[in-house]
Amino acid sequence: MKIAVVGTGYVGLVTGACLAKVGHTITCVDIDKNKIARLKKGIIPIYEPGLDKVVKEVIKKNKLSFDISLKNVLSEVQAVFIAVGTPARKDGKADLKYVFDVAKEVGETLAAEASRRRRQDYKVIINKSTVPVGTAKEVTNIIAKYYKGEFAVVSNPEFLKEGYAVDDFMKPDRIVVGTSSKKAKKIMQEIYKPVKGKKVFTEVQSSEMIKYASNAFLTTKISFINEIANLCELVGADVKEVSFGMGLDKRIGKSFLNAGIGYGGSCFPKDTTALNQIAGTKGYDFKLLKAVIEVNSKQRKYVIDKLEQVFGNLKNKRIAVLGLAFKNNTDDVRESASIDIIRMLTGVGARVKAYDPKANDNAKEILNSGVKITNDPYEAIKNSDALVIATEWPEFANLDFDKIKTLLKKPIIIDGRNLLNSVIIKKLGFQYYGIGRA
Ligand code: UDX
After folding, report:
1. Which residue's alpha carbon is nearest to atom 28 within ligand 1?
2. What is the pLDDT of residues 207-221, one digit of tens each?
3. String of b and e for 329-363 (b: at least 16 CB within 10 Å)?
4. Which of 161, 224, 333 maximizes ligand 1 atoms within 8 Å of its Cβ, making it the mutation to test the pocket?
5. Which fold would CATH assign to domain 204-296?
6. If pLDDT is split at 50, 70 and 90, which confidence band does 254 have?
7. pTM of the predicted model over 0.90
């Protein structure tokens, strides 16, 4: 099927490339001319394992092309995925400007096409961006304002984890499609036919809600285990043992029970805040979600509190921070706990040197120039008073800790991701503080 995907961020590019890989003919559209020029050459603007291989392969097979305007391709395609950003506004609401811009362009272009030709093919507009419940209706209204022909707006939320997005697309736990149109359902079935995984068809509003509810549930799990971790420290338990013991219960499951300095990224913080807003606009007080958000922001302060317990005042203390990305396997620093912690540290007068295997460049763009970013982990650690591990990159666990002990002024490690084997690290003579590990 010929399909257009609007937006070449993480979601749009992965969706476009993977749909091309399973046999569809895709045009990815973005208004950023530079980005499109680079993508045409197979240059991917993000670090996403496996994506560049897929993109290069499908470009070569003429299954994936790029364009700077939806107008150029709309008449050719049967379906249009909207995968543009919905950043959080200051008041926490999702900013739908970009989604509505695409809707307007679709409406105007279809109307112009229809006046040129007698007949216009049926189109399905698929919303992949995370949007409040009711947005599909609004998108329908915007298109219908301009275009009087037949079309359907479908909700099809994404559940892609950064760092694993290609795999998540190809082998999803489920594909959720919200539509009440039989015609649109048939087209969606055809689009996803080559992708294995349970297909769930719902009403549009339910589909829009599934995305928020899923992310809110996962963040609830994380904030819950972080609260348990804090309690573990007070009662002398180890949260790693506790979460392992809990996770073996199939009803609970072991995933998303890693205690740490809290969740970040482009989705979780934004989506939980937006869901809380949605509840608020309906006059519903979502107490549990508010607590989840509060626990998450409190958790980031843990590192500062621990360091202050050890050093008293942090003014002019040199702190090495390993990890800048919001999690491992990505170069993304959006809403990263590490960045917040670095800002808090410099805010109380500490001097920070930091290192990340993939996110150094992105971090440099948003961090104050006073923060020194190094190309080598040992360089960041050298002459520091303490080491903080802020991102769960597995390679940090394999560093040479004998060497690190000689490089640090004091052998102090705050392990914000419980990445290290505390027994071994303590045996090497470090003062080790994990999260919830009495
Ligand atoms: C998330 C969702 O998982 C995905 O389905 C959705 O569509 C987009 O948002 P992503 O943002 O890529 O994906 O990251 P994810 O792997 O879910 O981790 C999010 C954050 O939670 C990270 O900061 C991570 O460090 C943190 N986390 C995760 C924990 O603190 N503990 C855990 O046990 C798991």
Report:
1. 256
2. 999 999 999 999 999
3. bbbbbbbbbbbbbbebbbeeebbbbbbbbbbbebb
4. 161
5. N-(1-d-carboxylethyl)-l-norvaline Dehydrogenase; domain 2 (1.10.1040)
6. very high
7. yes
